[in-house]
Amino acid sequence: VMQCSASLDVLFLLDGSYSIGKGSFERSKHFAGKFCDALDIHPDRVRVGMIQFSSTPHLEFPLDSYLTKQEVKERIKRTVFRGGSTETGWALKYILHKGFPGGRNSSVPEVLIIILDGKSQGSTAMPAMQVKERHITVSAVGIKFPWEELHVLASEPPERHLLFAGDADDAANGLFSTLSDPVCTATAPGCKVESHPCERRTLETVKEMAGNYVCWKGSKQPNAVQASLRPFIRWKRVLIKPPSRCFRTVCPDPCDSEPCQNGGTCVPEGLDRYHCLCLPGYGGDVHCEAKLSLECSVDLFFLMDSSARVTLEGFLRFKAFLKRFLQAVVGQDSTMSLGVAQYDDDVSISIELGQHKDPFSLMKSIDDLNFSGGRALTGRDLQYIAQHGFRSTPVFADVQDDLPRVVVLLTDSKSQDSVVEAATYAKDQNLFLIGVGSSFMRTELTEVTGNPQQTIVYSDPQDLFNRIPELQRKICSVGDPEGCQTQSLDLVFAVDASSGVGLENFLHLRHFVRSSCLHFVINQDVTQIALVIYGSKAHTVFALDTHTSNSAVLQAIDQVSFLGDSGSAGSALLHVYSDVMTVQKGARPGVNKVVVLLTNGGGMQDAAAPAQQLRHNGVLVFVVVIGDTQRDTLLRVAGSPNYLVHMSSYEDLQYYQGLIERICEGRRAFKAKSPANLCKPNPCMNQGVCILGPGSCGCECHGWEGPLDSPRSPVLPLHFCVQWSPRGLQHFSRALQHSKRQ
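Structure for VWA2 protein, as requested:
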């Protein structure tokens, strides 16, 4: 409800020094974006600009660059941490010299918002005083622990202009409250600025007595040493919280009447509207009436960890979670068959699949489950459930239960045997695996499920119960996959294995490729993946049609070796163009195609031309570069900033989750611009010319005939080329294999 529409120039001054660090810098950006929500950004009303300072000040964008709130917030998000020393005084002198870049030259009120972590490496008192003498209102926002220096920077009174950004919403409210009088006078009806007691946090260095220590010194007498006790003092950093008063804008809350039932949380929307966040199982209406339905039909088996490492407390937590989940999703008319087993050294099927038809008897059976202890043999017990858990007798002998079969693994202890073989066996039995566990179980759960999208991790015991809706969605997604990862795609990774990368960093790249592959459904009908590594020459590790399962691709990636010579990205992309993204090597005409180049930025001089050839052939080229390099060269290779990903270090790759989303967005944009072309890549062999037709294509042959211009074949039709589909692909593949034999 806050909105400042006055004529106002706002300049953010962000600390980008090493002392604040990347994490706190991101919090600074978050606060700046949060405060922009309260500004009516327009050339004639509020203008916003930003300067980042460390060793030197750097103008990120002047006040007249962006005309809307959305543009400003997007630009703030893209601001990159620079690093350096904390020269706050120099930044203030820059403002004294340059003014507000893009501003209106003091014809409107000017507000300077300094966001920093504290102590400058130079004096700030004089430039801060000079800035305020120019009638610039200065608010100092502390990240981490504000120092006394913030009081020197902020305008008077300090309780209105000194803020702590630990809570971005609260600090943004406080800053808006400061501007409300006298700059932004249009406060929403019913709202008012109030003061309340609060704390100011500061980290100070104090000295304390550590005790008395024996000190020794010589004397004038021969062979005599004197000893005495002397006090020992040490310095210590202490968090001080002096009491103060804060000013905040307070508005009437539509949630004061507690309209949400059954433990629902009321979320206000403005002054007179709200919506309810309901607990799992309650959402029958806007006030959280009971709603019990899984909304899908499956055969569902819970495999619950009862080993010693999970402890009795953890086992009881899993029982409570299971009961809460079933209360939320199982009703009298549920079409779900449910079974429960617990495991340690051995597995015990406590509730047979479909044994209970009513929720009451099901809950009673779950209450009767007892903790057993023992070793966690997850692999062996999972395979047992895959073999025996879904054996049920149908009501009629001639009726087959063809519902999707789902196993939910609840575990909080590392398995003491291998889980990979059991997981592969379960998937071969057409079982859909979902793993649920705490965050330190993420890697093993992904090994079990084969896909991070099928794992659920929780941060603390209460967070486990918050995951019930997520589990409900994943169970009901069986047989109904969503997202571009389940659409047809030919994907090639080209990985820099040169000496410029080094062995240790190459392993980071290899791990990144492996984790990226986990997001795709790999088979000949959906996603095909190829891997190329390169130094001075490129080598195909495996082609698009080599591996037809996730497990086979992952195993092949794990065996890739480092090369170690000089690197040429151009030769790698040329190799992909001529020897990987071809019909003869498994590329499918009419299917979306993507190349992801992973590089340290070296050897890029000759890469632009083959990258353009790939794009002309309908292939999207992504460049993921690690470290500092020439951006102009990289842009020529990627073709667009949207297809260029820059990482500051190889270690950061493990935290980057945006590649798959970028590939999906790029495919959508590329497809809208250039619809799929069945003649790219050319399916015709021996210099045959591909001729497009309505929904199909054919080959114009020169001295050859048969499918795809292979030598004469009396069996297959001439000029064979159809639009790709799973069924058509098999026909296409058989024809191509026959051509190769000929």
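The chain is about 30% helix and 25% strand.
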